[in-house]
Amino acid sequence: MSEDDVPVAIIGKRGIKPSGKPTLKTIAQMTGFAVTTISRALNNAPELSQDTRDRVQKIAAEIGYLPDRTALRLRTGRTNVIALVLEPDEQIYGFGSSIVTGLSEAVRNTAYHIVITPLFRNVEPIEPIKHIVRNRMADGVLFSKAESFDERIRMLIDNDFPFVSHGRTNWPDSHAWVDFDNQAYAYGATKRLAEKGCKKISIILPDSALTYADHLKTGLSRAATEAGVDYEFAADVNLGSPTDAIRNYVMKRTKRPDGPDGWVCASEVSALAVIGALNESGKTVGGNVHVVSKQASEMFAQFQPGAETVFEDFIDAGRQMGSLLLRRIAGEEIGDLHHLAEPKFDWKD
């Protein structure tokens, strides 16, 4: 047992919640440990025994102890907070909850807490980033939908503020990121549709400013050219369009003589709109028309009869983002702070 593990005095009784706001001193009085030991135990200091850490953390939870983040920031320059910026739609469609699940696994057994910062509609994406950086609201930040030349990333690099983006950019400066290989996905999906006999393949792309829009276009066009089939990129709609707009677009294209007989879908929501439109148009998915889509949830499997899917693991993406951010906060150079998830094609013939 180390010197800091030796009880100094036992004041108060275990199980009796103290009056007033609990402090480190309160826990020290209830456990008999020095205040410095309490602080280190709450921060999972590895030099303390696991029994000591467990005991202190259990009592802290029982009495409702919350750290004074203002005092912590003044004393150490740290907040022990990781900010995750999310749009409301990302939460609704399950992306946000999956990212949070993975991120929670990454910060478990650390001193860090997750704070979700909303990005509201009609607000520029850089605004919540400015607020976090200028007010030092967190030690690091995570966000999604990286653009080719994302001004959020430029600002964070210029301010030497730790961050990890979900998605890559075309900035010449290296930065930490986690991404799914959308080029490989579009290539493999298009090859599969060509194997199924499709003669013309279409895709509904993300907003053109997003980096992965170019990745999808490159993968699809290269595979279609190699397979000797026609292809097109959907006009007038993108992944951010209302589902009704996507359905109407697909129905109109399907009714034309030159309409696609193969669809690559870059999200579950767009896939449901595409499949619904094809069914309403009298097409049989898996028969006279084929669809390949990303799948990120088990629920999607209940509503995509006839379509083939490729899994994108957002929980692991959150886990990877959290792990890389912790390494960056600890001072690790950018170097290898990147993770590219490769699609796994498991076609059922």
From TrEMBL:
It comes from the Bacteria. Residues 22-76 form the HTH lacI-type domain. CDD domains: HTH_LacI (cd01392), PBP1_RafR-like (cd20009). SUPFAM superfamilies: lambda repressor-like DNA-binding domains, Periplasmic binding protein-like I. Keywords: DNA-binding, Transcription, Transcription regulation. This is LacI family transcriptional regulator. It comes from Devosia psychrophila.
